[in-house]
Amino acid sequence: MMDRIKLFIKKDYMKSFFICFIIAFLSFLPFVIKGEGFFVLTNDFNDQQIPFTIGLHNALLDSGISGFSWDIDLGTSTMDGFSFYELGSPFFWLSMLFPANAFPYIVAWLFMLKFSFAGLISCLYLRRFVKDSKWAIVGSVLYAFSGFSLVNLVFYHFHDAICFFPLLLIGLERLKEKKDYPFFIFTVFLNCIINYFFFVGEVVFLVIYYLCRFGRKDIKGMIIDAVKCICCGVLGVGMAAFVFIPNIIFISGNPRTGQFAGILSMLKTSLTEYMYILKTLLLPVDPMTSISAVYTTRFSSHGFYLPLVGLVLVIAYVIRKRDWLSKLIVYLAVASFIPLLSDLFYMYSAAQMRWWYMFTLMAALASVKMLEEPDERAVRIGSDIYIALIAAFVIVINVLNRLSVQGVDWISNPKRFYTYVVLTIVGALVTRAIATRQQIKWKNVLVNIGIFSLGLMFTTMFIYKTCDWMGLQGYKQRYQVATQLELPNNQYRLNDTMNLISMTAHVAGFTNQSSTDTNSIRDFEALFDYYAEVVGMPKNDVPGVAELLAGRYYLAFNEANGPVVAEYTTDLGPVYLMEREACPIGFAVDSYITKDDLMSMDVNSRGIALLDSAVLDEDSLTDEIKADLPRNAADDIDLDKSVSDYVMEHTYGSVLGFNKDGHGVSCVTGYDKDTYVYFSVPYDTGWTAYVDDSKTDIIESGGMMMIKVPAGEHNVRFDYYTPGLKVGLAVSGICILIFLVFTFYRQNGKITKIK
């Protein structure tokens, strides 16, 4: 048994695993020690990655994948809100072995594992194309620690795609080589489950890869072959349908979904964009929060640089070879500069180069093939071209900076910019010296690349840490509060916009950092002329909005700020839970205002108007509503009436026995006449409302929900079930059954050929 374990550990792909783990471990270790085990980075990592993992953990324990999470903004489907982040991540499910609130203490170790598996799986792919698989180890380090991986350290969940994408290519290679259809189907299923967004880009890449690698003049044969691949792909996606279908339904209504802007407009981009693409192809990455040239801050995934070698060996390979890999690399390089081709990877949503990890894998493959079979002339020419491109870029950007073209500082941090330039040139010269030797020792190459990778990763993390606006202790203090926080009354929300607080405490709040909150929240925010792709509307900026949305509780660092509800102990001193006036989540309304009338009012008066009257779209007005509720025009709204008076009225008109969880909402009404009740809960087709077990219609009111209840005492219940999940489960069940039967018969020799 021990001998088998030793042999397994000595496998080249396991060496990749351990080497990548060591590099990642040494990079993370100083920051883990400084945080006493508690690891944070900056911006999106702190504001989204940590709290969203905790929030998903809590949501799954609360109601499974079909439920509703109150922790995402004003509330969102668990499936829709978390699938883009980590619902399908194997590393997330590993974290489920620990308590939810332990995540900040284990995230660094999970991150190390992601780098390790990126090395292992990419090694398995790369070794198919080299004679000595030790060169695949070198390539795996280039891939795992490429500029794309480093710049996206703040996007923890992106690294799942980096890890498992090479497996998809292995699946295609095995299908073509051994007719291993089941394995390819499984790799499609796995990548689709892990992240549907990245999977779409991977499918586009797979088509391009197939055409370059396996395209041939036999059109008929190629079409038949392609149809087989497509059928396998459809079956793999079908197996993942329980995740894929609900999310396709969700994103089809998401305003972030891209739109095709026309061929001519997408054939070119701006000068700054061209320069930034060129910079990130040529030089080591700048962290998104602190960029040394072209931009100063930009949250996109532009990162490419291969540690030490840069583009030297890639250019040399293209010069030397005219094979499928050269063609693919040239296409991907050209596509990077043309939005029409680049944005295609994500169906014309802004791609932001989030497909470049696939490009870096091809670049790593070309690099190690050149190292294994070096061509001195090609390497010399490649290094000369690379250094010339860097020099030309430096000259051009200095001219642009000197002339202040477009009125911007093209070089914002000269010290770091020129340090990167020098490091890149030194790396190119070292690579040239190594690759032009008569004998190249892979261990020497690996050590140099490993040291370069460690230095770049540590530097990137260090800069990210210095850009953290809150700091470790401030962030940790809020985390400590969140682990203790409970709201006294769950018919109200926490008036706090920090994801960490609401998601760690597992309470409803005003969280405002999410790419995937429910679409109706955007409809509500549009009532106030607000739109942002990720950041939610500040609920306290417009009078009456926070009160309308039940934002009663808030945190303070000074007990003199208001009535103290609770006190929490932290390392930096006490923090207090305060309360303010706010409407309950469910209350009676006695009039309506049309959306057109509301939008005609000054934006700062619209919150008051919504406290006065429920907003309804003209198209949703029925004869019954018109007969039951008086209509208020914009001029009928009493803007002199105080918010406090409205809050008092709605508190008297509150529903009773209010209770909410991941499955929905329940309450009791006891009005003396038929009444319309407004719930500040985001509308979603997944909601079904019942009054005394009889289904009733849900009226959408400006992105929120309203129902009519009869006079007298009644039990009201809202049940939530993710739209498309039942269909997705049925499709998945059928496809998994087909897959199992197909695999069984192939393994037992009953199917030897697919005609």
Concise structural overview:
It contains 30 helices and 17 strands. With 755 residues, it is of the alpha+beta class.
Question: What's the arrangement of secondary structure elements?
Answer:
Blueprint: H1 2-9, H2 12-34, H3 43-63, E1 68-69, E2 76-77, H4 78-82, H5 90-95, H6 103-126, H7 134-144, H8 147-151, H9 158-178, H10 181-194, H11 196-214, H12 219-239, H13 241-251, H14 271-282, H15 312-320, H16 324-336, H17 339-342, H18 356-372, H19 376-402, H20 414-435, H21 442-466, H22 472-484, E3 493-494, H23 499-505, H24 519-526, H25 545-548, E4 551-556, E5 564-568, E6 575-579, E7 586-589, E8 592-594, H26 595-599, H27 606-612, E9 614-616, H28 623-628, H29 643-652, E10 656-661, E11 664-671, E12 675-679, E13 687-691, E14 694-696, E15 699-701, E16 704-709, E17 712-720, H30 725-747
Parallel strand pairs: 3-4, 8-9
Antiparallel strand pairs: 1-2, 4-6, 5-6, 7-12, 10-11, 11-17, 12-16, 13-14, 13-17, 15-16
Helix pairs in contact: 2-6, 2-7, 2-21, 3-23, 6-7, 6-9, 7-18, 7-21, 9-10, 9-11, 10-11, 10-12, 11-16, 12-30, 13-30, 14-19, 15-16, 15-18, 15-19, 16-18, 19-20, 22-23
Structure commentary:
With 755 residues, the chain is an alpha+beta fold. The strands form 5 sheets. Strands 10-11-17-13-14 form a 5-stranded antiparallel β-sheet, with no helix packed on it. The protein has a 4-stranded mixed β-sheet with strand order 3-4-6-5. A 4-stranded antiparallel β-sheet has the order 7-12-16-15. It is globular.
